[in-house]
Write a structure and sequence with these properties.
Blueprint: H1 5-27, E1 51-58, E2 62-69, E3 72-79, E4 83-88, E5 95-102, E6 110-117, E7 124-130, E8 134-139
Antiparallel strand pairs: 1-4, 1-6, 2-3, 2-5, 5-8, 6-7
Length: 141
């Protein structure tokens, strides 16, 4: 080996010291930061209190349909035709709940397509699917 053993030892010690200082700097905890306080919402959702017209298309004959949005409910029984009407939307994030009980209990995948027309917005569509009865929600954004 070439070089002085004392010089090699000093170089290794210096490298260990630099590495230790770097690790100590990374692991030292600084003052804890508080997350910023949430700002008060000054703008309200324009859909609150609006009435939306809807159309519900079913893939089969329904024994019972229950559609709720913002506390209002629509219940219909024994239909295979598209269901239309109006639904009142309320809350910051309106949620629409759909429950469909099918007349036929044969196994199979079924769907219900809901189309909403809210004044001042584009038409919204959502497809609810299930292997049996449908019991689902849709949160509007």
């Amino acid at each position: 080996m070439r070089g002085s053993p004392l010089l090699r030892t000093l170089i290794v010690l210096a490298a260990l010291l630099v590495t230790g200082l770097a690790l100590a700097r990374l692991t030292v905890k600084g003052p804890e930061r508080q997350p910023p306080a949430p700002k008060e919402a000054t703008t309200s959702n324009p859909d609150i209190g609006k009435k939306a017209s809807f159309e519900l298309i079913l893939s089969g004959t329904a024994k019972e349909i229950s559609l709720e949005g913002g506390g209002t409910a629509m219940v219909k029984t024994d239909t295979a035709e598209p269901v239309t009407g109006t639904l009142e939307l309320s809350g910051e994030s309106p949620v629409i709940s759909l429950h469909v009980t099918w007349s036929e209990k044969t196994p199979g995948h079924r769907f219900a397509k809901l189309r909403l027309e809210i004044p001042g917005r584009e038409t919204l569509e959502h497809v609810f699917t299930a292997p049996g009865d449908i019991d689902d929600i849709w949160e509007l954004q």
